[in-house]
Amino acid sequence: MLDEFVLDQKIVTTILKNAVEKDRYSHAYLFETNGYKNANAVALAFAKYLSCPNHFSNNKNCVNCTQCKLIDQNAFSEIKIIEPDGLWIKKEQLDSLQAEFMQTAVQSKYRIYIIHNAEKMNASASNSILKFLEEPAPNIIAILITDNMYQLLDTIVSRCQIISFAKNDETKNNMIEKIADSIYVPSTLDKSTLDKYIATVIHFVEYYESKKENTLLNTQNLWHNVIDDRDKTLMAFEMMLLLYKDVLNVKMNRKVECYDQILSSLKSISEKNSIKNLIEKINKIHSTKEKIKLNMNQNLLIDEFILEMRCDA
Ligand SMILES: [Zn+2]
Q1: Which residue of 49, 133, 183, 192 has the smallest Cβ count within 10 Å?
Q2: pLDDT tens digits, residue range 275-307?
Q3: What is the pTM of this model?
Q4: How far is the CA of 38 from the centre of ligand 1 (A)?
Q5: In whole angstroms, what is the distance from residue 38 CA to residue 5 CA?
């Protein structure tokens, strides 16, 4: 059960086990995966932990009880898993779940529903679940799982206890790999150097998006100390292009391609920019990339770029 995940997710498993042992569980949990691949499995293990009468005596595996056997066969009527039906999770899926759960539990003390990819709930599904969360029925527990908490309604998030999974190196490595796969990277470049360039670009963009033209005062530290020749500049602009494309993805509720490790940054930048602004900025980055190839003075190039990124009008 939950013990399988202790090594990966010590804090999360401790919180969940304490909740059951102290009988102080929440009616709604929001699992923020942070890229952790086994979050769905943890949710099911938690549901099993709640449902199994032997959970205190046997944390690892329970082979004896009817509940666990049924859960393993995906035939336990008190645990329901909802997944997107096509692109979206639809209102009808939640309505039939709710109708079923309004009856009293028969096989277990708790009824638990788990929503995979909760960010895929369309507007009417979101409103339906919200009503359910607003009037929690006793012994019904919701577990919403999402890679992107920011795509959920604030009113849903505020009604859930947020369980944030630990980011592991794998997530970060994934981001570096995805970026490296999308741009030209010289084969001689090692990963930690690449990581340093990516971090510099992220920091530069975050700084620019909050300080705007004042960034001009700080370009030495923010940029030139690390990105100090033409090839690096070109690579950095490729990275920046992917970053702004991901901001646009967040803005348009599309899947983030590369920068999933910095979702909250993407979200905050997307809130400061209209779609039109983001497209303009992406175009500016493109045109600056062309200028880099002309071997311009690097200082001048970055200064001009910062000024050209103003497109708030
Ligand atoms: Zn059991």
Answers
A1: 192
A2: 999 999 999 999 999 999 887 888 999 999 999
A3: 0.59
A4: 21
A5: 8
CA of 128 to the centre of ligand 1 (A): 32
Kindly list the distances between the CA atom of residue 89 and the CA atoms of 40, 134, 147, 172, 181, in Å, as whole numbers in the listed order: 16, 19, 15, 29, 31
Cα–Cα distances (Å) from 36 to 148, 166, 179, in that order, read: 12, 7, 19
Structural domains in the chain, sorted by start: 2-167 (3.40.50.300), 170-308 (1.20.272)
Q: Separation of 1 CA from ligand 1 center, angstroms?
A: 9
Question: Rounded distance, CA 55 to CA 3, Å?
Answer: 11
96-137 tens-digit pLDDT: 888 888 776 666 788 999 999 999 999 999 999 998 898 888
Q: Ligand 1 centroid to 78 CA: how many Å?
A: 14
State the Cα–Cα distance between residues 125 and 94, nearest whole angstrom.
Answer: 7
CB 67 within 8 A of CB 51: yes
Q: How remote is the CA of residue 80 from the centroid of ligand 1, in Å?
A: 17
Indicate the DSSP class of residue 214: G
CA of 74 to the centre of ligand 1 (A): 14
Distance 58 CA to ligand 1 centre (A): 8
Looking at the DSSP bridge assignments, the partners of residue 79 are: 112
Longest CA–CA span in the chain (Å) reads 74
Question: d(Cα 269, Cα 308) in Å, to the nearest integer?
Answer: 17
Q: List all residues 6 or more positions away from 246 whose beta carbon is below 8 Å from its beta carbon.
A: 256, 257, 258, 259, 266
